[in-house]
Amino acid sequence: MMKKATVTVQRGLAEMLKGGVIMDVTTPEQAKIAEEAGAVAVMALERVPADIRAEGGVARMSDPEMIARIMEAVTIPVMAKVRIGHFVEAQILEALGVDFIDESEVLTPADDRYHIDKTQFKVPFVCGARNLGEALRRINEGAAMIRTKGEAGTGDIVEAVKHVRTVAEEIAALKNASGEELTRLALEMRVPVELVIETKNLGRLPVVNFAAGGVATPADAALMMQLGCDGVFVGSGIFKSENPAARAKAIVDATTGFNDPKLLAELSRGLGGAMRGVAVAGLTSGDRMAGRGW
Amino acid sequence: MKQMKVGVLALQGAVREHVWALQACGAETVTVKGRQDLAGLDGLVIPGGESTTVGKLLARFGLWDPIRERAQAGMGIFGTCTGMILLAGARPGESEPRLGLIDCAVVRNAFGRQIDSFETELAIPVLGDSPFPAVFIRAPYLAAPGREVEVLATLEEKIVLARQGRILACAFHPELTKDLRLHRYFLDLLLK
Question: Is the pTM of this model over 0.90?
Answer without folding.
Answer: yes
